[in-house]
Amino acid sequence: MRFSLFYEHQLPRPWADGQELRLYQDALEQVEIADRIGFDYVWEVEHHFLEEYSHSSAPEVFLAAASQRTKRIRLGHGIVQLPPAINHPARIAERIATLDLVSNGRVDFGTGEASSSAELGGFGVRRTDKRAQWQDAIDAVTRMFVEEPFAGWSSPHFRMPPRNVIPKPVQKPHPPLWVACSRRETIHFAARNGIGALSFSFVEPEDAGRWVDEYYRIIASDECVPAGFAVNPNVTVVLPMMLHEDEATAIDRGIDGAHFFGFALAHYYGTTPHDPGRTDVWREFEERRAARGFDRDQIIANAEALNVNVGSLRGAVGTPDQVADLIRRYESAGVDQVSFVLQAGPNRHEHICESLELFGKAILPRFTEGREEREAAKAERLAPAIEAALARRRPARTLPPGYRIDEDAEVSRALRGSRSSRPRRPLRDEVRAAGRKRAAQGFYRLVHGRSDAQIERRFGPGAQRVLFAGMARAYDPSASGGFRGELEFRLTRDGRPATAWTVEVGDRRARAKPGRADDAALTLIVGAADFLRILAGDANPASLLMDGRLKLRGDFELAPRLSEMFGGPSPY
Amino acid sequence: MRFSLFYEHQLPRPWADGQELRLYQDALEQVEIADRIGFDYVWEVEHHFLEEYSHSSAPEVFLAAASQRTKRIRLGHGIVQLPPAINHPARIAERIATLDLVSNGRVDFGTGEASSSAELGGFGVRRTDKRAQWQDAIDAVTRMFVEEPFAGWSSPHFRMPPRNVIPKPVQKPHPPLWVACSRRETIHFAARNGIGALSFSFVEPEDAGRWVDEYYRIIASDECVPAGFAVNPNVTVVLPMMLHEDEATAIDRGIDGAHFFGFALAHYYGTTPHDPGRTDVWREFEERRAARGFDRDQIIANAEALNVNVGSLRGAVGTPDQVADLIRRYESAGVDQVSFVLQAGPNRHEHICESLELFGKAILPRFTEGREEREAAKAERLAPAIEAALARRRPARTLPPGYRIDEDAEVSRALRGSRSSRPRRPLRDEVRAAGRKRAAQGFYRLVHGRSDAQIERRFGPGAQRVLFAGMARAYDPSASGGFRGELEFRLTRDGRPATAWTVEVGDRRARAKPGRADDAALTLIVGAADFLRILAGDANPASLLMDGRLKLRGDFELAPRLSEMFGGPSPY
């Protein structure tokens, strides 16, 4: 079991001058204490415009400051909002890597989609798009960490030409990945992506067991196709906390914060009207807390075991024995980390510091014995499954040498693509992109590790016809750089000509037909199996070229455009 | 005279594992020394993808880390790239404010447009757009600092609905503003915007005087219309530096760094081809430095006065006496700050630290005496001009209460607007927007501080006809929320009806005509002078409503949409 602090930087109204300064400076002091005591992580959200609920809109800055006040505590983004309209994927890769450098490799990279109307409306992110944007951006960002140079991107969500995104993170291949799970079902999603689950839905320890079991079952199954280049099998639950030897005092100090946390969360994630700069969430809380199930008077000290959710949100507000018991129950359920929100609502800095010190003295020592051994055993147990999962992820790409930065072409491609084409048929585009992605991953699995003969058996001329027709359908005129003409593909078997295909590229669409071209602008001569490996992302055309397994005739400069012209992610 | 360090985080090839970590950790140590010694600022660039030349892509992170290693040194962004495709304006306001909070008010906010092909092509920013994007974004970002809530934005460059952008900076109204001047002419531009000039073009002290004089002449003139809500009258020059009591040793330690700095700058800002991840800038430097004017052998120790530019870039590489003499000459020219690049090319950490210590002992004390008094005198001298300049800036807006976050409407407005509409007629849009802006600022000056009678004299029915026709032309159907119908404006004089105008809103365009409406959906009754004040941004419709000076009849909900419907920046 690992322990962490969780920060939203809450600041209930009314506001006075200097309060935000105090809030930030106090939080830095708290993190310093947590590091000294032996907390393992500090997490900080990224939220925009959520007045009172979260004044933490630039966590990269706070965590970087915290890195120089601490020695070993890990610095977690809980989370970075991935939609490209909020944070450009390159800016995300840059800030994560830089934080890893100033902290000497202590970053955990939590991710999320953004969920509140304030944020989605504020940045113009379509709710129906955000899951697809997350999936797209995490793929791109993790490639920016490992690809040198990043081979470029072209999706309905963002476009970027090849660039070496620098600096690179200290941790290789990249800091551990997490995803925020505001609904419990997202825990399954986290497992399918091979990343840690940061669970914000308050779940009783006894229910958590089932979610954790399913999480680890998926991690170990074929369903797990890692979103990054490393798997991070971990489940964290987030709870409000306040500690005191006297239970009534703990409640008195902590329950308003815990309740405001829940109330304000519901305010921003529900349908409550919000007038920016005007709505007073704290006043609404005081007026309506009881009606919303956050009744202060219902919470009484009775020295019973803590229940998280029942009888209004109480979380880990109680005595060291009560909280240790709660943690033990989560531990039995297989939860890997409990994260505590102490800075919530009107909770006071000195009470937070006192709670932390008490936690260090009275709780932490009960959970550290044998921890390293248990974690090592877990890692060993999961190692084969993780290795198998990583083999299912499409590998890092290698851009062939010879790409040249070309500002004019790159800018006009960027402006023609991405947003401008999106609003027209967003849903169709997205379904297509998702379909392409699934198809590509399935394809990769069919090809990867097979011999030429095996691949050729599976993809005879009939299958080739389907693949070329698909290529032609995926043609994107905006990526053609103005090219119109014929592309010829001569596929060989055992070095001898076997089949030939021609793709005619026109102004708006492309058409595939069997046979040689009349007047090919570019001819590719390649083994049928190698060609399928290229299409599947299992072989790198640049290496094939250098090995003489791919030959080009005609306009060499067209070659690097082909992938992008036919819906591929990057211009090799 | 103030002194600063300047960081690009340069890392010439070949690269070894752990070098970026060392680079960042060393830089933090150097900044700590600079703070102890009495340097006034540390500046850090924001550059993307400029391998070897600058591994500083997330300065908000490095500066935040530096904030906790230092006590009084100011933390300068030199600069933040303002085009919205690189950094969303809200994300900029958030990170600047957060850095101001963790550093207890020590941020200087330098800004720029981005200039290299690697960056413009990488993020898809049109070179012809970037100046307009800078002007647009700095206006929006400074409003985010002071408006509560930010009243929203709608320009060809980005759109955002009203939101309270939090947190707010510690420094009021906001941290001092600067702009990067890569060409000397930009110094005039800085002055016209009332902000500090960070000059990167290496200029001899004797030439600097002319630029500084013109800068301060413009600051004190009508030409100065501040980009922010405070004026920052300062000129900084940037120079490479290395210090040693023995001149030959200083040259030996510092000249390769100074020269690589100049060479790599020319590489990325010129037309040299660059293959991302492949081009070896350091090798090209070694092969071509002499041919490009960076001949190591030409630089000899001869104990003469330093010239910055003549006989290849040497900057402030020399003995304490030489460098102090150079600084004195800049001081005589009226330059306010000299910023030194020590971490350049292959320069070594220990030599940098030694130079800093020597600077603190042998140079700094010569420039501190009487400095506060001189600065106070300068501030007093400029105060009336600054006050006059600030009166020319369009003031902060007040969003009337009653705006409601509406995710669906906001998202579809964002996706319909901004990028999707831009590629069609970018230049025309931009010229129009710039024209509107100039017109609006001129208009504001004509109205601000005048009596009703003065305004009415100037804007009779003829001028009103022009203004209403302009409003109708500026109509943006995407902001109408589906409204079609008549808007009636009854303008009064001394409380009595004087003139009436009707704007007919159709599917695609609006038309203005004199006289009352047949069937007005909304009627505004307001003094002619007050109406002109609203149009000029000199009066707030919400306050006029509350004071009874503006009356509405009909569909009240239409009123907050009017400004945006007719091309205004925000939906009051």
UniProtKB/TrEMBL annotation, chains A, B:
Residues 19-337 form the Luciferase-like domain. Residues 487-566 form the SCP2 domain. It comes from the Bacteria. Keywords: Monooxygenase, Oxidoreductase. Gene3D superfamilies: Luciferase-like domain, SCP2 sterol-binding domain. Transmembrane segments: none annotated. Residues 411-434 are annotated as: Disordered. Pfam families: Bac_luciferase, SCP2. The keyword Oxidoreductase applies. InterPro entries: Bact_Lucif_Oxidored, Luciferase-like_dom, Luciferase-like_sf, SCP2_sterol-bd_dom, SCP2_sterol-bd_dom_sf. PANTHER family: BLR5498 PROTEIN, LUCIFERASE-LIKE MONOOXYGENASE. This is LLM class flavin-dependent oxidoreductase. It comes from Actinomadura fibrosa. The lineage of its organism: Bacteria, Bacillati, Actinomycetota, Actinomycetes, Streptosporangiales.
